[in-house]
Amino acid sequence: MTEVNTTPFDGQKPGTSGLRKKVSVFQKPNYLENFVQSIFDSVPELAGGTLILGGDGRFYNDVAIQTILRMAAANGVARTIIGQNGLFSTPAVSNLIRLHKANGGIILSASHNPGGPKGDFGLKFNGENGGPAAEAVTDAIYERTQHIDRYKIAKGNDLNLSDIGETHLGDMTVMVIDPVADYLTMMEALFDFDAIKNLLDGKRICFDAMHAITGPYAKAIFCERLGLPEDSVINGIPLPDFGGGHPDPNPVYAKELFDTMFSDNAPFFGAASDGDGDRNIVLGPNIYISPSDSIAVLAANATDVPGYENGIPGVARSMPTSRAVDVVAKDLGIEYFETPTGWKFFGNLLDAGRIALCGEESAGASSDHIREKDGLWAILMWLNILAARHQSVENVISDHWLAYGRHYYSRHDYEGVNKEKAEAVMSGLSKKLESLVGQSFKDETISKADNFSYHDPVDGSVSHNQGLRVEFESGSRFVIRLSGTGTVGATLRLYLEKYEPKAGDLKQDVQTALRPIAEIAEEIAAIKSTIDRNEPTLVS
Ligand code: G16
């Protein structure tokens, strides 16, 4: 064990989901070590406790994990449980923290961001409830990074992480485990696998693992457990650079899946997850389910699924997520909450038993089974609902809109924007907000315009500046916020939503339905002219 002198780095402030930077930044001498030591200094319970450790297998995962193991030993961690070859999905880590009553977990991932030597790397810390560390903890870690002057590390050779079993590093026990087994056991407890197997008998599915962490999990579930053919999982081998792709399950980056599902010979069901396995998308032949709609469908049909057959106490969604799930909650007579973007904000509501299901527009959904979003869980939930209802994806969503109306929804992303210009859009709109109420644009009159602040109903904490929202009397709205996960310049997100009651036209083209709201948003916020762009980088 040794102590190494160091000096602070600027900018080690965790964003929406941990610290995300270019690989080259993490490779700077002491950069990783400073941040990891700041975690150990800020979470003293880890000394003498249990740590869960693993990552999505992206470039630098293998190097970083050995460093963190040696630092864990030097900082007095009693036991580290690590995935074989250093791999764990994010939901698997959340489950293991809870299963082993661990004091926390470190996940090496930049989620949906690209990998490889020129790509992104990331590190997030989850607390003992299994969820992303609360803001008070990430603030403490950041504060520590600004004053750090030494870190502790054990000397020695790299540990062999390819063999399952127990070994030691100094006084620390290191357990190398199968990353999939406990996750599969948890899924078996929640879902009716026999019903799903019957549903899929003679049908084809296409799951795109995007060369990221879910490949081994999906093969164990779909091929080994449900008996589907090997080609049901595409891009199933995790690669350090995700095969040169971008492990973000959207129409642009999951093109192979979208082409398959929008072909003449499309499979019965399509789905994908992201780099670290916490996001999901669901498709049927020639139809893509908007993540906001997906959450509403899961809530409306939860009692069809064994793990939720007694009903759910409440639901929550992040503020920019469409309000489709609110309509379901009102109908069910259960509580519903609007939280800031970031999974950590669901933690208190889940821990308090106020909600059992939650989700975000950014392709995230999950329940109280863990404290992270869970890609394969959401996909199995859909399959279980299809099995219980004996319906296709298209029939389920059509019935849903007929019952509750439809929230047309889209997100327009402007990526790699000059930071000052992106901030100018935000401050320009912020200054106007108060004066907007009552003003009319086209056929819409503004009923509310504010900068969203969240008052956590469980611990009373308040989080300000969580996005600018402009709502219309018709129930439509637009929201603008800056992403907290990008690593190049700023990413400006414009979220558009239009509610169509159940008696209205439920089969419009999404972008056509939203065009008037998009035009009003541009008239009010002047995004394109302020940042010198003609079009968004990505429309999803
Ligand atoms: C992370 C967070 C999510 C958030 C998403 C997008 O997802 O866990 O809660 O919705 O980022 O955040 P932003 O709009 O700030 O980029 P992931 O899958 O990247 O960990």
Layout of helices and strands, plus pairs?
Elements: E1 2-5, E2 19-22, H1 23-26, H2 31-42, E3 50-55, H3 61-74, E4 79-87, H4 90-99, E5 104-108, E6 120-126, H5 135-145, E7 150-153, E8 165-169, E9 172-177, H6 181-190, H7 193-200, E10 205-208, H8 214-225, E11 233-234, H9 255-261, E12 269-272, E13 281-284, E14 287-288, H10 291-300, E15 314-318, H11 324-332, E16 335-339, H12 347-351, E17 357-360, E18 364-367, H13 375-389, H14 393-404, E19 406-417, H15 419-436, E20 440-441, E21 444-451, E22 454-455, E23 462-463, E24 468-472, E25 477-482, E26 490-500, H16 510-525, H17 527-531, E27 538-539
Parallel strand pairs: 3-4, 3-5, 4-9, 10-11, 10-12, 15-16, 15-17
Antiparallel strand pairs: 1-7, 2-6, 5-6, 8-9, 12-13, 13-14, 17-18, 19-26, 19-27, 20-21, 21-24, 22-23, 24-25, 25-26
Helix pairs in contact: 2-3, 2-5, 7-13, 10-11
1,6-di-O-phosphono-alpha-D-glucopyranose (G16) binds next to loops.
